[in-house]
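Appendix C reproduces, verbatim, an entry submitted by the partner laboratory led by Prof. M.T., so that reviewers can inspect both the input and the predicted structure.
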Amino acid sequence: MRLRDELPLDHRLSRVYGVGAALCGLLLLLFGCLGFAGSLTAFGTDGTRIAGLSTNGLLSLISVLFGLLLVGAAVVGGNLASTVNIAVGVLFVVSGFVHLFLIGKEANILDFGMSNVVFSFLMGLLVMTFGMYGRVSGGLAHDNPYWRRRHPEQAARETTAAPLRGVALEAAPDQLAER
C-alpha cells in the first residue's frame, strides 16, 4: 500500500490527522517538560515517576522531540500529518515490545516500567488510528480518493456511468407516462 498525496490539502480528513497529531504531541510535550522540571538525571534508573510513568532525562528529551514532531506535522497538516502519525505510532508500538523485554535489565536506559510499556502501546495505537483514519479501511466509499486511487479501472467506469444514470433517471418518468 502506498500512502502518498491522494487527498487535497483542504480535505476534511486533514483536520482529523492534524488534531490527532496535535493532541498526542501536546501530551508528549507535557510529559517531557514535567520530566525536565523535575531535574532528572539523563540515564537515571532510580524509578522516578511523573504522571504515573517512570522516567529519566533521556526519556523526557525523547518525549519532547516526538511531541514537537507531532505538533509540527499537525501544523503542516494534510497527508504529511497522516504519514507522520502512522510512522510515530508504529515506533511507539515497537518501543513497547522492545522495552517489555528490557524491564529489569541493565539495557533499560530509558527506565521503562510496565506502565510505560502499556502507555507506549496505547499511545502508538491512538496515533496510528488518527493517521490511518480514512486512508486504510476495508470498506471505503467509492467516492473516497484513496479507493479511487486503488481501483482506477472501476473508478473510471463509475465516472463515465454517472452521467448516464442521471439521464436514465430523468428519462424514466417520461417513459412511464408513455406507457
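Residues 13-132 form one domain. Additional entries are available on request from the coordinating office.
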